[in-house]
Amino acid sequence: MRGVCVPLLCVCVSLLLRCTTSQAPEERDSHMECTDGYQWDLQTEHCKDVNECETIPEACKGEMKCFNHYGGYLCLPRSASIIPDPPGQPGSSFPDDVTEPYPCPLGYESQGGRCVDIDECEHDQHNCQPSQQCFNTQGGFSCQCPEGYRKVGTECIDVDECRYRYCQHRCVNVPGSFSCQCEPGFQLAGNNRSCIDVNECEMGAPCQQRCTNTYGTFLCRCEQGYELGADGFTCKDIDECGFSSFLCQFQCVNKPGKFSCVCPEGYQLQRARLCQDVNECETGTHTCTEGQTCVNTNGGHRCVDNNRCQAPYTQVSNNRCVCPVTKAACRDLPLSIVHRYMSMTSNRTVLSDVFQIQTTSISPGAHNAFRIRSGDDRGAFYIRQINNISAMLVLAQSVTGPKEYILDLEMVSINPILNYQSSSVLRLSIYVGQYTF
Questions:
Q1: Which parts of 25-174 fold into alpha helices (H)?
Q2: CA distances (Å), 345 to each of 238, 249, 271, 277, in order?
Q3: Is 190 left (phi over 0), alpha (psi -120 to 50) or beta?
Q4: Which of 124, 208, 293, 367 sits between 20 and 30 A of 428, alpha carbons compared?
Q5: pLDDT of 158-216, one tens digit each?
Q6: 346 burial class (0-12, 13-18, 19+ CB within 10 angstroms)?
Q7: 8 Å CB contact between 201 and 207
């Protein structure tokens, strides 16, 4: 191929190295015959190009100029010039009937009538430094630094990519490259530079009970009734009963992760913490017979005989006994005895009112006085008279059960107008429970 340069116009003309078409050779003594455009040279014994511009008169007419080339000629404007390619341009072949050895350009070598590029890198015919890489090019080679290196003078030195802050967390520079690392609790994203949070809870975090993922880490938590151990992973039971003695009214029982309150026999749990007495007399769980009356107490019950009257008293109604004055044995005894029952908790507040006494009938002009006739040897109670017809039994000392008091509360009635004095007794049975509830 030859390049043709024309002023104000650049034209590239592709020219065949031969203007004539080769024919299939006949069998003859061809060493003295040449194709058109060539002639035999006896001195060199090779075919030599014929310069048609010299041998053909007025080969080009008018303003055209003749330009010779192998096997033919060109007629071009006189202002044109030819820049001939060197014989055997890389990739091109010599004319089949030209046997003169044509030299190949630098960086090429002749192989089978063609100029073939020499791979200087493969044949170690380059001058690249050990730190450089050799890259073959057409007719030559180039020395380049590997990726991750930059050229300083004639040497390649490592590029510290970490100084450009490519990594979100940590950057580790290595020869020719770098790698990004993440802080604990993170992992590299798909771009190998950013760091994304790791959900440790989904990856088998060592939490014994509950795991809460947070940014870059995780937290172990415990169910209600447990507390986190010193290692931050395990959960241990909280002994709620050991924190306070007021959690339960009676007894606190610790259980894994919780606690429960229990009540003594005869009581039932109320609102999970309080103990309420079970009224066996109402629920029918008592053991009293038909001739007995069930009296409920704190934590239990008592069975009392329906007729508790003792001679010389006779029963006149339920719980009421009368001793007639007509009987000689009754002259120094109260006219009547009424039986009443009550229960009381242990350690009840001192000076608290316990039981109120009140007469059901009164004679005009009569004066009534109230007193504890019997049953209070240690002075645990006293009577506070309210008015002429009523009085209050008051707790004077703290009492602890289980214990039973049978108090005879007497009302003495004096009538100076009628010159009459009589007394009646309220026999109060007080059952003090074992507990304060």
A1: 52-55
A2: 33, 13, 20, 11
A3: alpha
A4: 367
A5: 999 999 889 999 999 999 999 999 999 999 999 999 999 999 999 999 999 999 999 99
A6: middle
A7: yes
Residue 340 pairs with which residues in a beta bridge? 428
Spatial contact of 69 and 15, defined as CB atoms under 8 Å apart = yes
Structure tokens at 209: 């009970």
Separation of alpha carbons 141 and 117, rounded Å: 10
pTM over 0.85? The answer is: no
Taking a C-beta distance cutoff of 8 angstroms, is the pair 412, 371 a contact? yes
CA dist., res. 1 & res. 69, Å (int): 11
3-state secondary structure of 104: coil
**pLDDT at residue number 419:** 84
HEC-encoded secondary structure of 150-201: EEECCEEEECCHHHHCCCCCEEEEECCEEEEECCCCEEECCCCCCEEECCHH
Q: Taking a C-beta distance cutoff of 8 angstroms, is the pair 412, 368 a contact?
A: yes
Which among 122, 154, 120 has a CA at the least distance from the CA of 140?
120
How far lies 232's CA from each of 184, 220, 221, in Å? 17, 7, 9
Torsion angle of C-alpha atoms 235, 237, 240, 242, degrees rounded to 10: -110
Query: What is the C-alpha to C-alpha distance for residues 138 and 117, in angstroms, rounded to an integer?
Result: 6
Alpha helices in 217-274 (DSSP H): 240-243
Are 398 and 350 spatial neighbours (Cβ–Cβ below 8 Å)? yes
The rounded distance, in Å, linking the Cα atoms of 288 and 57 is 161
Q: Comparing C-alpha atoms, which of 10, 11, 70 is closest to residue 46?
A: 70
The C-alpha angle with vertex 431 and arms to 429 and 434, in degrees rounded to 5, equals 170
Q: Give the start-end residues of each E strand in 299-389.
A: 300-305, 314-317, 320-322, 336-344, 353-358, 367-374, 381-385
Q: For residues 345 and 435, what is the distance between their CA atoms, to the nearest angstrom?
A: 6
